[in-house]
Write a structure and sequence with these properties.
Elements: H1 2-20, H2 27-37, H3 41-54, H4 59-74, H5 83-103, H6 108-132, H7 144-158, H8 163-175, H9 179-192, H10 198-210, H11 214-227, H12 232-244, H13 248-261, H14 266-301, H15 306-347, H16 352-374, H17 379-406, H18 411-423, H19 427-436
Amino acid sequence: MKKNLFRLFSFAVLAIIIISCGGESNPLIKEAKDGIKAQNYDAALVSLEQALVQDSANADAYYYKGVVYSEMAQNNPNISGRKDSYSKMRENLLTAKSMYETQGIQSVESVETQILIDRKWSEEHNLGVKYATGDSTLAPTDNPLDTAEDHLENAVVINPDSLLSFEVLAEVYRLNSNTEKGIQIYEDLITMKDEPEAYDYDRLGALYLSLEQYNKAKEILIDGVDLFPDSVSLVQKLADSYMKLGENQESIEVIESLIERDPNNPQYHLVLGTQVYIMASEITDDISSKYDEIFNLEREQRNLSGNAKKANQDKVSSLRASIEDQSQRADQLIDRAVQELQKVIEVKPDNSNAYNTLGIIYQNKAAALFDKRNATADNDEAAKIDNQAKENLREAMKNYEKATEIEPDNQSYWRSLFQVYTSLGMNEKAEAAMEKAGM
């Protein structure tokens, strides 16, 4: 029994010796280790390459090559210049790890292969986070976000499977206005993740919007909304992308879906009212150009006769019929816009933006009526239209005045009010508004 215990004890001691002294039997490995201690990395690499010439399956040689490159990266003061060393470190350590497993070798080196990769990743990742968050324990630097980028870029070289480092790096790129790199990282994250998150689509869509790449934003946001239909932020950004692309009806439908979820959200009603009015203004702009055309045709008609005069009259009639149809559609949209903006004011009476937008709507309604008046030959009818236009100007004035009460330092509001006062012949008020507008 004692003999068997002695044999077991002997095997245990032998295993400890093997684990603690891996590679010591090879003089080239010993030379390399001495070179590492002396920071003579070129000499260490020469010894390790020689060891691999002797035995291409020497796992220790690959392990210590990884150590050499790790030390080279660590001692490189140029943070962004460490990537090549880290890449070679990872490559050699993973080769060593694979060989240790294949050959069934258990040693300090075999255990350290993954530990060294993890440790170096952790160091670079944590430094990146600290610089990004302004950690006071770090030495000051002129551009901490640039330094954070460098460390995190090193981290993803060391461990390209770390979703955490990619996520932090993407956010640092965004904060540092490095938008195109941020887009690439978020594109990669969506591909890398088994289940991408709403946040990934949201950030990516926002970055595309910031670069005015509205079609790409729309595509990624549609994908995001399909996966996360309850994400209000994604839906809002999708509506924004539609608006930027001039796809007004699609934008309105998306905004209406937001209002269904939160009927009393003033921001949604403000956006919807504004967007509906944009659609109306496109129609009224076209109507205005048609009134100009009618004015020119009727002026030309005085010098026409026969078939030419008949063709001119037919063209004028056609334009007036088209204006009538368009006016009905524009009036419907304008009424809807006014309703939405009044809803904003009901919920949030101090929303100056809503009052200002209402002022714009009524001022533009007045402008459209003035165009109509100018294209009306009947003097009585023209006078009636003129009165309607002035009524709308007075309504615009009330809303602009309310906007300036809420936000008295907004010069844009005062400029609009100056225009209305001038149109209504209110000269003293126009002069005061002009001064407040900084004109």
